Every structure is written in C-alpha cells, then in structure tokens.
Write the structure tokens for this entry.
Amino acid sequence: MFSPSKAGFRRLLPLLRPHMRRLTWGGVCMLIYVGCWPLLAWLAGQLIPAIGAGELILVIKVIALALCVFLVQKLAQFGQDIMLAGPALRVSQDLRRDLFAQLQKVELRALEKLSSGDLTYRLTEDADRVGEVIYKTIQDTTPSALQLLAVFAYMVWLDWQLSLATLLLAPLVAILVSQFGARVMKAAERSQQQVSDLAGLLGEAIQGLPLVRAFAAEPWLQKRFDAEVDLHRQARYKTLRLLALQHPVVGFIEAAGILTVLAIGAARIQSGGMDGQSFSSYVAALLMLIDPISHLTTNFNEFQQGQASLSRLREIEREPREPPDLEHAQPLGRLKGDLLLSHVSYGYEPDQLVLHDLCLEVKAGQVVALVGPSGAGKSTLFSLLLRFNTAQQGRILLDGHQLSQVKAQELRRQVALVPQRTTVFSGSVAEAIRFGRQVSDQKVKEAASLANAHDFIMGLPDGYSTQLEERGTNLSGGQLQRVAIARAVLGNPAVLLLDEATSALDAEAEAAVQLGLRRAMQGRTVLVIAHRLATVQEADQIVVLDQGRICDLGSHDELMARTGRYRELCERQMIRDLQSATTIH
Ligand code: ADP
C-alpha cells in the first residue's frame, strides 16, 4: 500500500515547456482580458454619477464605450480559454502517459504487491483530478489572480488610504482560507485513500466472486464491503462538512469587509479626501474583487485536493524500478541456447535466500524438467532467466553471455515464456499472437500452425480476426494455451520456458496442447515446470528442487534407480494418476 506524501505541482512545470507558443498567445489574451477590468471600473465611476445627474447623452456614450470594452474583453477571454485549454489538457495527458510508462518499468515483485484496483484508481481518478487542477490553474487561477492584482492596483491609484484599510482586512480572509485549505487537503487525502481501498477491494471481489459464491461467503464479503463503503462515506462527509463551513465563513467575512470599506469611504468623502466619482469607481472595483477571490478560494481547495492526488500518483515513481541495462551491454546475436547456471543464489529479500547455490548445465536443444513441491523456487528460477530479478550470487550464462550484461529486451526476445495461465488482452486472435511485434500474417499463421492452433482459429467465426473477450473468455482453456504457445514461438526463441498448466483439461484438449508443445519445443532449449509424468519422463535432465536447492539431478531412469526425492514424488503422482483414472472411468 502506498503512503501519501508531499509533492508539488511545481515539478510539473517542465511539462509545459513544449507548449510555450500557445501559452504566450493565451497569456496575451489574458492580459487584455484582465486589463479591461480596471477600465470597466473606471467607466462605472463615470456612469453612476451621470445616471444620478440625469445626463442622458453622457450615459449613452459611457454605456456604448462599456459595451465595446465588454466585447473586447469577452473576445480576449475566448482567445485565452482556447489557447490555454490545449496545453492544459496536454500536460495532464503527458502526466498520465509518463506514469503509465513508469508503471511499466516498476520491478515485477514490487508490482505484484500493489493492488490493481488501487492502481487503476490512481491512474484514472487521481490523474483526472490532477488534470483538472492543471487546467484550472492555467485557465482560471492565473487570470483570477491577475484580475485581483490589476483591480487592486487601480484601487490603490484611486485612493491609497482606503485601499490600505481594504488590505488590512485581506490577511484575515487569507489566514482563514489557508487554515481551511490545509484541513481540506488532509480530509481529501483520507477520502481518496478510502476510494482507493474500495477500488482495491472491488478488484479482489470481482475476481473472487465465483469462489465467494462457492463458499457461500456472500454475507462476509458484503459486510467487508459495507464497512469499506461506510469508511469512505465518513471520510467524504468530513471533507464536505469542511467545505460547507468554509463558504459561509469566508463569505461573511467578505461581506463584513465590504461594508466596512463602504463606511470608511463615506467618511473619506465627507472629509473631502475623495470625490463621488472616484468612490463609485472604487466600489465597482471592489465588487470586481469578489469574483476572483471566490474563484481563488475554490481553486485553492481543489488545488489542495489535487495535491493529495498528485502525491499519490508520485508514489508510483518511488516504487523500485527494473535495473537498467548496462551502458555497454553486449549484443546477443542469434542464440543457440546453451545455458549454464553457476552457483546461483537469489532471495526476494537479500537476507532470505529462496534459491541456494544452483549449478546446472543445459546443452542447446535439451529439455529440462523442473520438479518439486510448491514453493521450491521453480517460478523464481524462471524469473531469473527472464531477468525479472537478478541473482545475488553466481552467474547465469546463455551461450556464454552473462544475463546481467545483456539488454533485457534482447534477452526476452530469445527466451519465451508460456505461462500456466495465459493473459490475453482484448483484441483479435492475430493481435494476441503478435503481442505488439511487427510480423507478417504469414508468420502469425506459421506460429499458430506450429502450436497446433491454426485449425481451431480457422474454425472461429472470423478466423484470425475473431475478437477475444477480456481474459479470453470466449476461448477454451486448451485453445488459450495454444494461443500462448503460438505467441511464444512467433519470435523463434532459442529458449522456451514452459509452466505446465495444472488445471485439468479433458483428454482431447490436453492431447491438442501436447502436440502444440511438442512441435514448439523442437530445436529449442526448454525448461519446463513439469506437473505431468509424461513430460518429466521424456526430459533429458530432471532437476528436483526442494526449498531452493537442487536435491536430485539426472534422467528419469537414473533418478528412479535411486531411492531419492524424485522416486518418492513419482510414486506419489503415479498413485494419484491411477486414482484419478479410476474415478473417471
Ligand atoms: P514454485 O514456483 O516452486 O512454487 P516460487 O518460486 O513461486 O516456487 O517460490 C519460491 C519461494 O519464494 C517461496 O517461498 C515464495 O514464498 C517466495 N516468493 C515467490 N515470489 C515472491 C515474491 N514476489 N516476493 C517474495 N517472495 C516470493
């Protein structure tokens, strides 16, 4: 779980740099827009006494002028909004894109610890909120602040003493606003974390719904969900209560301030320090301050909430990254597939080794079966071969190249994985096999034929263009596996890592997958996490792993001749197979 921390919007400024041209034009429009306000206040000062004195011609002239100023101002506002909207939206788009790119680089083991629901929330809702703040800051906060400055400067020019009195009231408002702001931010942070937690729980719940139903655990899940929803409501309510309190308090102080200024102004006119016309302009200007102040207050709150979102987004940056490639990484070239593990030790936590001193030599084209109980370290070994993780001790060499010294992407093009449970993205079958690689349709078909998938794909309603549903639910388990095999062999890898599916396929589906696998394995070095006796028996070498150590190594016959861990495992599996065979028939 992430912990919120401070991070500023200032760090987003470099993202604005490419948009300087539009920003400049937007800025010019903004200056025209803002400059019209004091002019309008001045016109108000001319208009009010003229109306009072019944000077119709003057009134008409001033109104005509005011209309022109309004027209120019509104046109400038339109220009400003149009010019600034583009960069504002682009910055939030860039931010989201950057974060996603960073997410793709986060170390896999760190990624596994993060809740997918929480992450999704961050990259959608939090990113939206930050985008909104960026948009508002450029589009609304900046012109409001400038309007405040311009109008106030005009007021000082009109009567500095009265302006001083006005200014004395301002810090009171400012202190109150910032006090509220800090609280709103804290409350918003809590409330957003609650939504994230809720999203995390929802993610888990949706995945686990069938299981929950199977265990009749709906009331338990509902209770957990209700509790989470209640926490969210409470956190949100706290934010809303603060906001509800803030508006009337700040509003009342503003009103009291204006009335005080009016009283002082009246006294100034009486003492001859100011004339009626200037005072009318002054009051008009004063009224023109209310709007920007109110915008700034609201935006300040949103800014605080956005800050909370931004700091949650920035947490992704702090997750550990995949170590970068060495600067002088060796080019791999086409590999044969000779693999050598020399005294390899690895632990997810440096002081807790999961693999101990593994030594193994695999000749190109050999098939090696990895067997051992769950938790023995088989998947961890795969993660080292794909360089998801790097061995703390020892070396892994592929055709003499040390894995830590080659480019990860190059390595992964030649070491392909067929996972136990395949993930497919929604899209066509051909796209699932291509997985982003630029290869011809012919190559895709060849890979599918090799994986024994071509015939079933041709039988689908739209052949290779058939759209897969999310998680490939419109294909059977066996079909999905064959798609996964085709995907793995498409790049003609030298090494194939297979994690045999344990889920029961019916005999026919299994035979089809086996045929695909057998063809896919031809001419490659294959490491297979083996669950089936048949696979193990046919392997050139069998590595028996237990608690991260190789406790037995040899061919099936060699290992069966010994009374070791392997024979024990085999006998147990044979009994299990026999049992399941008798239950089926
Ligand atoms: P196998 O594939 O043989 O079932 P694994 O390689 O998955 O075994 O796990 C080996 C050991 O490493 C286990 O003790 C497991 O708890 C631990 N382990 C696996 N993945 C992680 C991870 N991402 N972070 C920390 N420990 C892990």
